[in-house]
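I'd like us to work through together how a protein chain folds, taking it slowly. To get us started, please write out a protein record for me. Label the sequence line and the structure token line clearly, so we can match residues to local backbone shapes. Once you have written the record down, we can walk along the chain together.
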Amino acid sequence: MASNQKPPDVVAARVDTEADPERAIRLWDKTYAERADECGVFLSCKVDFLELWRPPVLRRSDLYRIFGRVPGTQNPPKITSDQFRALADYTKAFV
């Protein structure tokens, strides 16, 4: 099964992942391929920091220190290079 063990609803509705995980992966891959065809653009990036099980908590006080406010997350604003560096420095404490 894939990394998070939870395929998209469109895949889960079509296959019992417990009974045939290989089929689920094929359908999942097909779903991503269709999305890539629709979008026409696929971006990849190098990971500088990744912690999925115990990610650092970014507290309100940290956000105020870095941004001067609590930025929206549903449609994140553009940030400055100084703000990006401050976020990157924040994560270094957890490596």
